[in-house]
Design the sequence.
């Protein structure tokens, strides 16, 4: 069941800390209107190749929301957005990096507003989410999803 803290991003408990990834893929996108769709497709293709599709709709939704926020509020004009998918033993993590200042915050959108619900959706759907500083400019906004144990090769 997704974590639902009222005002702050979730953090993984120490016993859930992410160690080395079993699999990972990264793709860099130019800051464009089409970036959220391209990021969603990249993540879906990667997860399908890994055989990790049990929560694909939730993961695609969160990827889209995080990438949209990066394009609209994070990456500066002419900048880029990096999307990383990490598969760990029991957690799948999606990261969206941008070079912008500021820290995204979950907020209540007005009922009639056409936008402003992205992080509310992420916090409702993902098991955990958060924001991390990066070396240099920008930030990493991530969402994590628990999954079954990865089969041994």
Sequence:
């Amino acid at each position: 069941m997704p974590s639902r803290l009222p005002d702050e991003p979730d953090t993984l408990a120490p016993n859930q800390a992410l160690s080395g990834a079993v699999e990972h893929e990264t793709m860099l996108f130019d800051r464009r209107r089409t970036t959220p769709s391209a990021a969603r497709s990249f993540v879906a293709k990667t997860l399908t190749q890994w055989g990790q599709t049990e929560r694909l709709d939730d993961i695609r939704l969160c990827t889209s929301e995080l990438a949209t926020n990066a394009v609209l509020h994070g990456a500066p004009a002419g900048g880029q957005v990096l999307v990383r998918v990490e598969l760990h033993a029991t957690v799948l993590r999606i990261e969206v990096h941008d070079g912008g200042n500021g820290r995204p915050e979950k907020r209540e959108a007005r009922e009639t507003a056409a936008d402003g619900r992205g992080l509310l959706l992420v916090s409702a759907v993902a098991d955990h989410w958060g924001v991390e500083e990066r070396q240099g400019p920008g930030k990493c906004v991530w969402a994590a999803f628990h999954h079954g144990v990865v089969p041994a090769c």
User: Anything to note?
Assistant: Residues 48 and 127 are 20 Å apart (CA to CA).
